[in-house]
Amino acid sequence: MTPLPEPVPLTDWISYRAANTPSRPALVADGRTWTYAELDADVTSTAQMLGGWGIKENDRVAMLLNNGAGAALLIHATLRIGATLVPLNVRLGAAELAWQIADSHAQLLVVDGRTVKLAERTRAEQPDLIVVSIDDPAASEARCERLDSRTSRDATLHFAHDPNAVLAIIYTSGTTGQPKGAMLTVGNFWWSAIGSALNLGTHIDDRWLACMPLFHVGGLSILLRSAIYGITAVVHGGFDAVAANRALDEDGVTIISVVLIMLQRMLDAHEDRPYPSSLRCVLLGGGPAPQPVLERCARLGIPVSQTYGLTETTSQVATLTPGDALRKLGTAGRAIYPNEIRVVMDDKDTPAGEPGEILVRGPVVMAGYAGRPEVTERTIVDGWLHTGDVGTLDADGYLRVLDRRSDLIVTGGENVYPAEVEAALLSHPSVVEAAVIGIPDTTWGQCVIAFVRLSDAPDGVDPSTTDELRVHCRTLLAGYKTPRDIRIVTAPLPRTASGKVQRHVLRKRLTQTDGPASSTAR
Amino acid sequence: MTPLPEPVPLTDWISYRAANTPSRPALVADGRTWTYAELDADVTSTAQMLGGWGIKENDRVAMLLNNGAGAALLIHATLRIGATLVPLNVRLGAAELAWQIADSHAQLLVVDGRTVKLAERTRAEQPDLIVVSIDDPAASEARCERLDSRTSRDATLHFAHDPNAVLAIIYTSGTTGQPKGAMLTVGNFWWSAIGSALNLGTHIDDRWLACMPLFHVGGLSILLRSAIYGITAVVHGGFDAVAANRALDEDGVTIISVVLIMLQRMLDAHEDRPYPSSLRCVLLGGGPAPQPVLERCARLGIPVSQTYGLTETTSQVATLTPGDALRKLGTAGRAIYPNEIRVVMDDKDTPAGEPGEILVRGPVVMAGYAGRPEVTERTIVDGWLHTGDVGTLDADGYLRVLDRRSDLIVTGGENVYPAEVEAALLSHPSVVEAAVIGIPDTTWGQCVIAFVRLSDAPDGVDPSTTDELRVHCRTLLAGYKTPRDIRIVTAPLPRTASGKVQRHVLRKRLTQTDGPASSTAR
Of the candidates A8, A21, A367, which has its C-beta nearest B1's C-beta? Predict the structure, then answer.
């Protein structure tokens, strides 16, 4: 008896579609459409360019690119040559960037005209690193050669992939400590795509809009998932509410992945006009969403599915099933097939509704952190990824994500999850954005501070407004959860590229101006 | 670093859906609808009944049931208790049946009121075999206990499945020789479902009609695929063209799997009225389809996807992509992801368009034939399943299935594929059914004989009709392919449960009446 090969090798999805559905649209970017046949040809050319720079199997290719066709081609080409992609955040500081590239042991760094300057320090510190640009030298720098200036026709291309091969190493934004490179395998992305398809369905004429960065797991997984499904990935250069709305209204986009602030801006720009019925799913990630926004979407018939994911779980690992959007409003649904989620406190599963650390097991869990076996062993125990995030499971197993554990506020021995307080603030009609942090307090350990941006806030805010907000919170929350201090801000809150509020930035801002808080003084 | 478990265990799909989408319809059968929550509960009860009869992991449960809820529940329950299903054809002769059950080493045989008599001989020959019925004893036989008369609450139920576990052993109809039990694993069915989803898409409100027997790989795979997708399986008691049409017109069925004769009857009964747009795919298997039928469907806007599959490949392994139906009319498309197809003659891949044996490799290929390691080794070589079927691949890799190899006619050293001749006959407006066989010929080795059923054929056929048909064929085919003799029949041609023409029956019928043909006499 001939045994089945295990694991099953995965045929290259783009070459498969190029053979099966050559004329279907595969990619829309930079104002152009690639069919699967065209994408396949361009991915091969790009892979041969990587080969021209000496890149081969298991090498690491760092990508410092803004969203566009160049990034999409590089991502697919890196897989085709059997190398590992290291996508880098274009907003990194030069020092952070140099550190991550050194840590990743990348052989090649690919930049564009806008990021070439940022790579200057890396180039100085790592003279052996090859830095090439996808843009014209004139537009970038004369000293930087173009990626397409060398080509190897002898490069070994890969048209079947080992599910255990590392496809990408993505540095996690990590609010504290050094970033760590999460190793995501071919199998991780495959299972992520299949699990999502079994939850949301997949239609052969789907068009999935990526208006979040491709260097982020959210954007990257859209690109790979679309190729696995044989559908169209629509890649925007960045997020623009009007452009995103236009893609939904006029460009036949059926699925869009967003975080809360993006969705809010789109709704505002759309002025409560309904979206076309072709829009079949708004996948809302990046953190808990306040009830009023979800209810606003429900009223407009916008099919929102809240989702919960991490870099370490190859994007979404829990997603609310479309039909459950109203029944389980505010939860992130249940684990996508066939992954499992537990909520644990003191090594025991918590009772229904009780918060604890979110644990995840299944084929979307990363292979580990690159070069950090000890951290990996602490993070993945018996196959369970310890996310560090806090949430609850209800009696039906629906996950409600409360917070990043590092943001947990402990005041007078009571736990306060900032998201809960933020949701209360956001439920007030005047509040556009809210962020809650804990700051050291001599009496209570920590106390709760809120940052709030109001709609059409005047320069000088009426003090009665903060009183009104505090009363509003008090009607919804326990006293110890009600913010001790509410600060009205006029600028948008600081957020990561994926749209998460950077609470550590707010915390830093506060301590620089105030010093430690004293409860007696307030 | 904690390695990923390989192979990835597959969460039980029904219990997963019962937890995630409890109120979605899972099964329509016997005039009733089961939600996923209800199906899950009934599958557990049925599994506990199997436990009550002593069935446990790795045991084999033979099923001799007509289509209905009872069969659907038994199929799912057998997986839940970790046993292997042996689905048996209810049209078998008593001796064949006894042989297959003995060969399968089944511990339990489940019958219904209509099949209990058929199992009589098996019961006599295998006194240790437990035979139970899903119907009332009164309706069947007093001596046969009911399946639900025993229940074990202690039965170990399985809610995660090893992809390598054997889910079913299906005896192949095999036109010649003893039937062999193809062992199909959980992973085979899983990959079959995923490959199909990546080709046809999967919509969360899909309803897939199974009007072919569930004891057949075609029907069984519909039931399992629907559960994997979390959609609705609509199970008909048998095929009835009017009922099938009604399911498409009024019952929201979106996908239907048929063989040619079923499709023809449905089209005739529908009198060329269009079908609703909710019908998004007619999956046409069971053998090559004649061009005129496909063109008729194209004219009516019926989205036909021709497919090629075998028991040994867990149903479909090549399917025409919907958009290619017209461009590649008459082919069965390309291999479904991530399987591979080759066409080989004398150990070499044939040039494009040249016929050879169809070989298949990939995760839908069975684990082997139960208890027949030597046959398995001859059939699966280096992972490639030798199907024994004959086909061609065109320059784009599209498969055209010509015939079962055992039906190949060799006349004067030339190969004739019956399907090609049948297609020529079927392209004549008067021909309803056609079957072509080779019979021994003293001069040419074999000669080509056709059986033809005409529309509204009078009892006495005008001899000029057969002449006209022969001329018609001659305009389309080489002389050696044109039937030497065309026999007009008035009764439908003999077919297997899956709708394949039983050429061996025709061959037998002919030799019994004629004796060997002599070319000089014709």
Answer: A367
**Secondary structure of B369-387 in HEC code, one letter for each residue:** ECCCHHHHHHHEECCEEEE
pLDDT for A457 equals: 56
Interaxial angle between packed helices B463-476 and B418-426, expressed in degrees from 0 to 180 and rounded to the nearest 10: 120
On whether any CB of chain A is under 8 Å from the CB of B371, the answer is no
Number of Cβ atoms within 10 Å of the Cβ of A289: 24
Strand partners, B438: B448
Q: How high is the mean pLDDT of chain B?
A: 88
Rounded mean pLDDT, A230-249: 97
Residues 78-97 in A contacting B (C-alpha not used; CB under 8 Å): none
Residues of B in contact with A24 (CB under 8 A): 323
A326 has a chain B CB within 8 A of its CB: no
Could you tell me if the ipTM is greater than 0.90? no
- Taking a C-beta distance cutoff of 8 angstroms, is the pair B352, B400 a contact? no
Residue limits of CATH 3.30.300.30 in chain A: 408-521
| Alpha carbon distances (Å) from B76 to A330, B55, B67, B100, B135 | 34, 14, 14, 22, 18
* pLDDT at B181 > cutoff 80: yes
A315, containing H or E segment: strand A315-319
- What is the nearest CA distance from B10 to chain A, expressed in angstroms? 6
Q: Which residue has the higher pLDDT, B506 or B325?
A: B506
Give the residue with greater pLDDT, B448 vs A292: B448
**pLDDT above 90: percentage of residues in chain A:** 62
Task: Say if residues B240 and B246 touch (Cβ distance below 8 Å).
Answer: no
Q: Residue A91: how many CB atoms within 10 A of its CB?
A: 13
Q: Which fold has domain A10-162?
A: Rossmann fold (3.40.50)
- Nearest-Cα distance to chain B for A197, in Å, is 8
**CATH number 3.40.50.620 is the correct assignment for the domain at A183-406:** no
CATH class for the domain made up of B10-19+34-162: alpha beta
A338 CA: distance to closest CA in chain B (Å): 6
Show which of residues 386-405 on chain B sit within 8 Å of chain A, judged by CB atoms: 396-397
Which residues are registered as beta bridge partners of B377?
none
Is A198 part of the contact surface with chain B (CB cutoff 8 Å)? yes
All CATH 3.40.50.980 domain ranges of chain B, comma separated, are 10-19+34-162
The shortest C-alpha distance from B133 to chain A (Å) reads 35
Q: Residues A19-70: pLDDT tens digits? A: 999 999 999 999 999 999 999 999 999 999 999 999 999 999 999 999 999 9
Taking CB atoms and an 8 Å limit, are A229 and B363 in contact across chains? no
